[in-house]
## 1
Amino acid sequence: VYLERYAVRRLPFARLGERDVAFFERLLPGRALTAQEEVKPFNVDWLKSVRGCSQLVLKPQTTAEVSQVLRYCYEKNLAVNPQGGNTGLVGGSVPVFDEIILSTALMNQVISFDKVSGILVCQAGCVLERLNEYVEEQGFIMPLDLGAKGSCHIGGNVATNAGGLRLLRYGSLRGTVLGLEVVLADGSVLDCLTSLRKDNTGYDLKQLFIGSEGTLGVITAVSILCPQKPKAVNVAFLGCQSFAKVLETFTTCRAMLGEILSAYEFMDEKCMELVERHLKLSSPVADSPFYVLIETSGSNSSHDEEKLNNFLEQAMASGLVTDGTVATDDKKIKRLWSLRERITEALTHEGYVYKYDISLPVGKLYDLVDDMRARLGQSAKNVVGYGHLGDGNLHLNITAESYSHSLLDAIEPFVYEWTARCSGSISAEHGLGFKKKQFIQYSKPRGAVVLMQQFKAMLDPKGILNPYKTLPSAPEWGLC
Amino acid sequence: VYLERYAVRRLPFARLGERDVAFFERLLPGRALTAQEEVKPFNVDWLKSVRGCSQLVLKPQTTAEVSQVLRYCYEKNLAVNPQGGNTGLVGGSVPVFDEIILSTALMNQVISFDKVSGILVCQAGCVLERLNEYVEEQGFIMPLDLGAKGSCHIGGNVATNAGGLRLLRYGSLRGTVLGLEVVLADGSVLDCLTSLRKDNTGYDLKQLFIGSEGTLGVITAVSILCPQKPKAVNVAFLGCQSFAKVLETFTTCRAMLGEILSAYEFMDEKCMELVERHLKLSSPVADSPFYVLIETSGSNSSHDEEKLNNFLEQAMASGLVTDGTVATDDKKIKRLWSLRERITEALTHEGYVYKYDISLPVGKLYDLVDDMRARLGQSAKNVVGYGHLGDGNLHLNITAESYSHSLLDAIEPFVYEWTARCSGSISAEHGLGFKKKQFIQYSKPRGAVVLMQQFKAMLDPKGILNPYKTLPSAPEWGLC
């Protein structure tokens, strides 16, 4: 449906031939998949909202293999879709037409871990949750965490500049990623895989690849700084009677919890209803219009509990919060987190999901949900809001029995115009991928987009890397 | 001396003519300086180690004026040296030949400050210390702090990706800078001045300008995330009997102080001797081979003091530390910090200073100082080491009565080869500027440097912006 809607046409790349397949089978014996059944799952995204028709999946194990694959594709003008855990939400991780899928699934080796500095170096295909387990054994944690952790690859996380649940405390990947190894479109290997906290020798090239969604190069290895594992973690799950109270609770807890605050998430009552109904989870607090999840991470459990209790007492006494529960043991902490983390999954049970991932000034965050609900009325099944309030990041989701042009027309460009009026971002953390790339102008001025296209043309002159993604197609924009 | 040593030749830019001067005097009435006395201080760096011979200093007040200046220079092929507070240590902030100096001194307005989010938007010429005072009044602090704070401009800080004293806690500018406005070489204005914590719409262009030392564009405005002002700050100043104990003290305090640790600095006994001699400061602890400064910042003074006291007890009991003092009041905290912050200043009293700013694996940090001291023997007056140990960042300084080729030959490339063998960085935070640019290959592979040169050629095709800086000159490298 997207192809039609945005009138996307296949660019004049070469078609995959028998000789090409033979080359790849020789290069990657047993790791060049062509059987339709094997290829199929790689063609469809996690949301089942976009589907390509690639006929070849390549599974290299080494950087040298990735380099040989790309050198060949570059010479033959074959388009390539780099794919990590395929958990992206904007159609960036699957082919649009017949692009060759380059999967990092077998590039899953840890290269090194330094216990003094906490610096991990690993291949791009390592699964985030496996890495977290690995460094946890040595007293550290990964600086990022997100709902898809069980499947997403660290290379994909970096390629999309994933945000997630720990950004409030440990900052973005732009600070924690110390080095990258990247294979460029022509197969040359760019080695920026250093493990230094500070390095001001020339331009920081790796930054350009962070968040470029596989359109400028294929990330093959990552060096990342892991924070120490906190000795004490507490989670509070609270009910609030209005969004204004959610906001006031945030400023109060930021002031009172200070350096131990590691997450401030919110969800509305509709979200709770859906996780209860579809996932059989039960709410630990009395029904409320809004719920807040607060996490603290610190080095001294009695200090942290004292801070948290002081805050909770004040929040209850002043009526900011009407009900709440606190967890200090791992099991209950996981249970509380799953209420928030599994909203995405619960939504998929409702039919088709229109997903929006918006950055806004925190005070206006929920106004967009209210306005959208009023606008759509009965034509949508659900309009829900949740997200990383501490980062000013709203996940706005709209569900309906099935996809319809008319509902989409009612949502877009309204949602983007609304966001642009508040100087927000139309994609806080999901990226633009295939589904959002035509809307970049709502968040970036024309001069910036033209410059991006110049970078793309410089680094990938034939445009073979993840085509049809991230940047708007050429006609409207003049370049390429 | 550097011109000679590195055989630097003036590139064929146009020479400044009377008509050019007349144009600038019309554009910036009273703010185009040509009198030799007025221009002179802008031609010499803070260390008095490099000197240009510019005949014109321009002081725009607005982005539009910067744009007009650059458009004119681009058309006429006139080279430009952007200059902030002129506190750089690698000769990046002054002209090499007759480049026009574009000073941000009059671009010193705060544009906005949001008390809820702590996001500051200001012009590039704001002095760091003034900004810190401004946000402190509203309960926040700047995310960076450095010895030069009284003169350095925030635009220069961003252009050089300054590190400094708070990086350990608040991370690098790559995470805290949320947006930039940049004027490109041809005078066009790139507006990436957003104030969002998360924005994944296309490539993050601003990152390329952070740390590019004015060679890719002139930063005219900055949007930056300020952390909350900590309610409690403590500083401990300690004496250690060996560098091994300095390291062990670090791992112990990182584990015990956790999230409240905001600085871990070290200096050797020679540094202490120099600040005592030249600045009449006195050491607060018994003479020791090494000194450590530890700062904590937190939201609860009794919790923080308890953590710090527990750590100090353990450090004293186990013999890691042999003497120490703690400060909780502002005045004493400032006094302790000045011992560390004013080492640079004390060194300048010793004659000529050869400065090196190295990133190394923390365990090897002081080996370089020992090796250098052994190598130079009597030919150097002092060989001292200090720096941001928590970030793996050593400041190695060598002094002599005056500059000599032979001493420099004994130091370089030895120091760079030593660093490269440990996969370190030859410039952790100072940048490459004019003095270090020929050594980039010790920290970056050739492919990366070639790519940097392509970026430079794309963004500044005539090479008018801060020429002779950051990237090695063309002949050896083939490109441009």
## 2
Amino acid sequence: QMPRGNLETVNHRALLLAQLRKWLDSLKFREAFECMRKLRINLNLIYDHNPKVFLENIETFITQMNSIDHINLFLTELKEEDTTCSMYPRPEGSPIQLQPVSGQKKVDVVCDALRSTMETMDPNKFCLSILTAHVKKTEPELEVALQKVHELRENPREAPGAVSAEEALKFLLFLVNVNDLYEHSLGTYDFDLVLMVAEKSQKDPKEYLPFLNMLKSLEPNYQRFTIDKHLKRYRKALLHLSKCGPEHFPEALRLVREQKLYSEALRLFAANDAQYKALSCAYAEHLVEQQQAEQAGLLLWRCGEFVGALQAFAGSSSWRNAICVAQQIPLPPDQLALLARDLAEKLTEQRRYSEAALLLDQYAKDCEEAILALITGAVWEEALRLIYMHDRQDITETNLKPALFDAVSSHTVFLEAQVATFARHRARLAVVREQKEKARLDMLDEDGPDCPDAELYSEASSVMTGSKYSHSNSRISSRSSKNRRKAERKKLSLKEGSPMEERALMYALGEIVTTVDKMREEVHNLLKALVLFQLDRQAEKLQQTFEEALQTTEAALPEVWPDGIQNNNAPLTGPNSTANSITASFQQQQQKPAASQQDVEVMAPPRMRSGVKWKLTILK
Amino acid sequence: QMPRGNLETVNHRALLLAQLRKWLDSLKFREAFECMRKLRINLNLIYDHNPKVFLENIETFITQMNSIDHINLFLTELKEEDTTCSMYPRPEGSPIQLQPVSGQKKVDVVCDALRSTMETMDPNKFCLSILTAHVKKTEPELEVALQKVHELRENPREAPGAVSAEEALKFLLFLVNVNDLYEHSLGTYDFDLVLMVAEKSQKDPKEYLPFLNMLKSLEPNYQRFTIDKHLKRYRKALLHLSKCGPEHFPEALRLVREQKLYSEALRLFAANDAQYKALSCAYAEHLVEQQQAEQAGLLLWRCGEFVGALQAFAGSSSWRNAICVAQQIPLPPDQLALLARDLAEKLTEQRRYSEAALLLDQYAKDCEEAILALITGAVWEEALRLIYMHDRQDITETNLKPALFDAVSSHTVFLEAQVATFARHRARLAVVREQKEKARLDMLDEDGPDCPDAELYSEASSVMTGSKYSHSNSRISSRSSKNRRKAERKKLSLKEGSPMEERALMYALGEIVTTVDKMREEVHNLLKALVLFQLDRQAEKLQQTFEEALQTTEAALPEVWPDGIQNNNAPLTGPNSTANSITASFQQQQQKPAASQQDVEVMAPPRMRSGVKWKLTILK
């Protein structure tokens, strides 16, 4: 017995914890437990103090407790929290206890460890604690617990101290809500168990007996299906229903549609079943509604539903598959040509000119349209290939050359406009940054050095730099990231003086850099076509304009995105800064929530693909 | 007159400069000039003190100088350097003088401004100063100066104080090296001028007269060509030679080859000339040597050299052009098929399977080979398209399906290996960083706080963080950037304890992220093919493996590339840091040379293309 009054008067928590640690280190669980219970120390500490030692000495623990009630008390008090981190921090300098990294949760680890030890030691004696261990897991194992109760009823234990099924059930009802227990008993499909629980609960037999009797009258698989459905365990329900024979298939199909259990359902039937095909069609319908027509097409095609598959593929511009299915049907040549034209039209709308041309050439047999599509899409070499393949050099003069002239002039105009906008934004950015820097230095100056709460300034300056806005953004993170990004961009107003103007300018500049950089291939191909048709002068002009655009943008990168990313977090050093102000400016940087993805996208310098060689050496 | 002795004894530079500034501000150029000359103050200050005011008052300046010698002295002392930044810094608080931003050099601006003013005021009186202004430009305008001398000789000035051609030439010879002047006089093609200079120089007439006489005997264009060639002005030489008629073309071609003046030469001849064709062939030969066979092909094709063009295109895998030229020749069908096979083989080596298949299918008329190429290249949908187009479903069973099985298993193995390597590198990176942090804190601790030269530590720590290596890199910046990058990577040894290990690990981790991210499209296409052939189980496994790989790598990004870029420049704050040490660590950051491009590439987190949807919803 502890010298009770004594400890209570001193009541020095540090002393108390030191004593507890000593007991736990020497495996005196009993003493520790008694003391903790009396002084209301959280029992989790028994485990948290040294998880490894505890798990290695569970039998000792159980033997020392020597009481179902105490073990149950310990089990029910278990929480995920590590008390040595929260309530009872370790004294400084003590070795850090590594958590056994198993990926499992602490509560589950302790419950499972205690239960299995008790089961080895004496399953009868520890029966109620074993039930507690099942019930207290983060995902309560109610059905296992119920099963054990049921076993007790079937085979009552003779051993001294053994618990009866009655007692065990009562105990469970004390731990768990009665309705939960009833539902879970149903889930075992064991009517004896259900009745047992129902009787113990204060449920009205008039309520549950008719239902149970109805269930009993059903064919076993259908019975299980009905129970599963009642318990909203739809996957299990579907599994059982699928075993009930084809006459129940319509019901299964309904269930699949209602609960969107399409992939699960497909796995339950053989691929050559009629039912498999029906499910595939239902799934395909659903997928089309979900804008997944291509996947719908694949499902339909593989189960032989060619017409449906063709529709689905055509609807999703999955033109290769559409054409394959059409040829498998097989569609007569004129209809195939029509299909090819339809598909080509859609692809043209999506600016997929090469693919459109292939369809027009090979399936609609219309090489002229194909060549024109390629010319529209600026796919010069491929256009030439078809021109020579079909011996249609006339199109070179009538369409290809004029298109080259158009392309070179529109590219030049476009590039010049981009460069002009770039210069404007860049100049404005310099002004905005200078103003911001000035505003911040003014703030620091006002109160002069040795100002003890410099944190205030850094916070104030963070408002200026827009981090307040990014905070408010985090509130709407539940929206889809696409929407969020859109919202983000809306905030990025280029209007002079807008709070996010700097960021808006950087974003706009980045867009220009990316746009210009993306044109390398296009310009390269255009230059080659121009040279081929002896349009060297135009080619030279374009090459120069593009070169200048690339150089202008590339040269500005270090200025617009200075040294890494956080341009507006330049440290507050300077003649008037103090250790405090410097440190504060750092803490601000460090406390800032990790930059979100779209922040990084705006703030990181765009990468230019200087590896993509586009220039022609034959042009000066 | 200045109270000379007085100033010399006091000789207080600040006082002197203050006085000079006062004079210059009140446009007393004469006083300023005299004083500066006597006390050896750099005359550039007259302009540098306030460029705008000087340029607006040039006439006043010239009038006050009132001496050719003084003006010449000022002109000859002009240097690009801004003396108010170097020798005579402005007093603090004085308004900063904005340099007139014209893109022109200061020396040229001043020379041109003085010259044009003098030409308006009195070209005769200021003749020698005008010549000085021509000669002192950063690109001396010797020919213009010579031309002016020649004019004086033709039309001697009657005005009082006017200079004779003799005097002017003497003056020029005093300013410029005689040989330079002689060469430049030749460049005017004006033999009178040449003789005038030659006579004034101490050159031996036996030396130059035969040469001049020979030149005089030549046809004018050929004469100019000979002079240009003598002066190594090859472009001009070519221009004049091109006007000498076809009998001189071989000589022109030789010149073009020797001096690589191909593009210039092409511009001098009409596109339908025989000479244009010859030049094109020569240029093409050169381009092929320079690994620019495709451009060579374009030049040959457009001037009708089809066979040469075909070779050039075939050599550069420019297969579309090659085929077009072949059909223009036209090659007989069997040879065309052979060409297509050759091209396809090369493309296959370059993993350009789709293009190889097109050649095999459409030009070699071998659909089986085409389909096999597509299967090898994992271009599943296109393979299927050809299978259906040519009604060769047998290949589906014999080749396509086995290839799908291979692909899914090799992808899975590959992804698992990447993930394993990633985990290993990531764990090691954590260790390396911890060690580095510990080493740095230890260093700070050793001397404790209040250590006045904390800069030493930050420098020492910069050695640890590898910036010493990046310094040594800057020395080899003359190498091509590709070589530099290679060298950089070689330094990045993954060996444990290597000085750049952290960087090497980050680089390796980045490579894995990029590799995995790049597989999105490939995996997506493979998944669709697997589903089509009812290989759902394999597809699900692959989808899971890939999903895990993406998640593992994406989740590690913030840890591997923490908050922006400069992970190893975390500020030195902590219980033992001082204002000095914090500031020092900053200065280190700021003084670091701007991160070079390849640094950024290693240090910036790779971007994952989360916008590329690859997952199939029909797979769980």
